[in-house]
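Onboarding guide, step 5: your first structure request.
Type a short instruction followed by the sequence, for example:

Predict the 3D structure of this protein.
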Amino acid sequence: MTSSERLIDEFSQWLSVEKGRSNATIEAYRRDLAHFSHWMSARSLDLASLGESELEAYLGVLRDSALAASSIARAASSLRGWLGFLFAEGYISSDPSARLRSARRGRSLPKPLGEHEIARLLDSLSGDSKIDLRDRALLELLYGTGARVSEATGISLEDLDFDEELILVTGKGSKQRLVPMGASLKHALGRYLGPGGRAAFVGSQRHSRLFLNARGTPLSRQGVDLIIHRRALVAGIEGSRISAHVFRHSCATHMLAHGADIRVVQELLGHASIATTQVYTAVSVISLQREYQNAHPRAHE
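The system replies with C-alpha cells like these:
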C-alpha cells in the first residue's frame, strides 16, 4: 500500500466515524482521490511538493476530458476535504487546496411529474395480485413520503405505526425521522399487508423488510427501478422521465405548490440544510410561469 493509499484510508475512516458519511459518499470520495493519486504518481509528484498550481492543472485535465460539471465539482470537493484533513492532522505543512476555485455546477432543476401523471400512474395499479398490491404500496410510499429509494427499501415491518399513522425512515448517516402515513398510503399498505399480499411471497416470514421481490427476499434498488419503469410504460409515461427520485421531486414540488411550509418539506425529505430544499421552490415558480404563459389571456402580446 502506497503512502497516498494509506492516507486515503485514514480519511475514509474519519468520514465514516467522525462525520457519519454514508458508504456511497465515502466510495465516491475514494474513487476521486484514487484517480488523483494515480495522476500524481504519473507525474512523480508527492504530497509535500503539491501546490495550488498542480491542483488547478489536475482540474483542468478533468475539464478537458468532458466530464460533467457536477463530477468536476465533486472531485474538487474530495480534494479539499482530503487535503484539509491531512493539514489538520499534521501530515502536510500547508493546505494547497485552501484557495482552490470551486468548479461551477450547472444548475439542474428536478423535473417532477405533473399531479395528473402521478394520479394516472397510481390509478393504473388496480389489480389484486401480490405483485400489484406490492407495487401500489411501494409507489404510494415513494410519492407520499418523498423517501429516497434506499430509505424505502430499508423500511421494516416494525417501522410502521398504523395507530399513529407514522413510518420510521432511516436516512443518510443512519439518521432517523418520522414521516406521516397519508390516507392513500395507509390504505395501500393495509391491502399489501393483508391476505394475498406480502404474506403470499414465498419465504416472506423469514424477512422483516417491508418490500419483497418475487423470490421472497428484500427488494433491491435495482428492483425498484424495474418496477417503476414497467409500471410507467403501462400508464403511458415515458420511461426516461421517471425514476424513484422523480417521486421524491414530485412529492416536494407538489406540496410546496399547495402551500406547504418549506421547513416542513425539509423535515419530511430529511434534508440537513434548507438550501437543498429551496431548489423545489424554483421548480414551483417555473411551473407557475409555464402555466401562466399557457393560460392567461394577457400573457402574450
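Each response can be followed by summary notes, for example: Residues 103-107 have pLDDT under 50 and may be disordered.
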